[in-house]
Amino acid sequence: MGVNGNGKRPVLVVVQQSGGNDFMNTLIPYTNGIYHDTRPAVRIPEERALPISDTLGFHPQAALFKEMYDAGSVAVVQGVGYPDSNRSHFRGMDIMHTCEPDRLVYEGWLGKAIRELDPRGENVLTGVNFGRGLPRAMAAKDVPVTSIGDLDGYGLMTPIAEDAQRSEAMRVFKDMYAPAIGTGPVMDYIRQTVNNVMGGADLLKDVPGQYFSQVEYAATPIAQSLRDVARVHLAGLGTRIFYVIHGGTRGYDTHANELPTHAALWTDLSAAIMDFFQDLRDHDASEEVVMLVFTEFGRRIQDNGTGTDHGSGGGAFIVGDRVKGGLYAEYPPLDPSQWERGEDMKHTIDFRGVYGTLIEQWMGLDPAPVVSGAFEQISPFE
Predict the structure, then answer these.
(1) Bridge pairing between strands 326-328 and 57-58
(2) How far apart, in whole angstroms, are the C-alpha atoms of residue 127 and residue 117?
(3) How far apart, in Å, are the Cα atoms of 129 and each of 85, 148, 360?
């Protein structure tokens, strides 16, 4: 069993920043001349960055996130990536979900972890996703996982509406999986997975009525998703892995209008995470929960006039009361002679080492079969 402070089984919440979060404008090298010279259109002025060191500072709209960092509950993992990073959204996210940069596979890393946590598939709520379809990360053969779009709305559904949602889930799954695996062999797999997903959702109908909180979550999709995570966790149904997506399909894909878009995303995400952990603390339920915030890739070093294009060398965040906050791995070098492909941030830690850290040090599992190998880890826990 992994590290936790109150004897309860460790729980992992994964937040996906869809579209490729601009790490360079999230953790800003605000004193670096190259940063300011290469980003005349989307740079954050030095005086607006929120310093956490003499050289690095958070985006000004991530003030609540910085507050959590200052309290010691955020580990910032710098330079997350893998060799020859793939810039395609679909393939890039597929790699991040399956830990397989060189081949196409069915199973996701969290699906394999759920299998280790519940080998007989006895609890369809061991893994719960809030959103449409099911992320590749949570899919694995013979591993039941629950996916639900709206905890409040689902309990009010008529049988006809439930059938419609099942059909919609089937369509979403087909769109999500078929391009990578092929339409023929994947359909039986999809049908089985959809049946698992919908069956588990029925067990969650009574959860809203059991929940009371003084935390007023915002009316944003990410805040409501994390509120749903809190409600299911506090219901004590045995869920060990939760998954939510921020930014819709590609909200962080800031090719244009990056400054207002990125600011709004971090405003919403920071507030949602702050409220989520406050809610858990109010219920004496935060010690057993750790959150991973990740994205499929970073952005290019130079801006394109109004935004930034797909790149590499992004970042991830590990959040929680049991986390030893601070900076981990190395910030990607900004000297142009060290840019990846002559235009990208270089990765300084393999994403599979970040996953492996959580799987081994937090969840208490052998990371090798989950992340497909042995990768250098960090030490972000007290």
Answers:
(1) unpaired
(2) 10
(3) 26, 6, 22
- Give Cβ neighbours of residue 260 (< 8 Å, ≥ 6 apart): none
| Residue-wise pLDDT tens digits, 141-169 | 888 888 888 788 764 434 555 566 656 66
What's the one-letter identity of residue 130? Answer: F
Q: H or E stretch including 181? A: helix 159-181
pLDDT for 150 equals: 77
Q: Are 347 and 312 in contact (CB under 8 A)?
A: yes
Report the alpha-carbon distance of residue 273 to residue 86 in Å, rounded. 29
DSSP, res 381: B
**How many DSSP H helices and E strands does the chain contain?**
11, 12
Beta-carbon contacts of residue 60 (< 8 Å; ≥ 6 apart) = 44, 48, 49, 50, 263
As a whole number of angstroms, the distance between CA 320 and CA 93 comes to 24
User: What is the DSSP pairing of strand 57-58 with strand 27-28?
Assistant: antiparallel
Confidence of residue 201 (pLDDT cuts 50, 70, 90): confident
Yes or no: domain 11-371 corresponds to CATH 3.40.50 = no
Record the pTM: 0.91
Using CA atoms, how far apart are residues 199 and 154, in angstroms rounded to an integer? 12
Mean pLDDT across the chain: 90
Going from the C-alpha of 44 to that of each of 28, 57, 308, the distances in angstroms are: 8, 10, 13
C-alpha dihedral, 60 to 61 to 65 to 70, nearest 10°: 20
Kindly list the domain boundaries of the chain, sorted by start residue: 11-371
115-148 residues labelled b (16+ CB within 10 A) or e (exposed): bebbeeeebbbbbbbbbbbbbbbbbbeebbbbbb
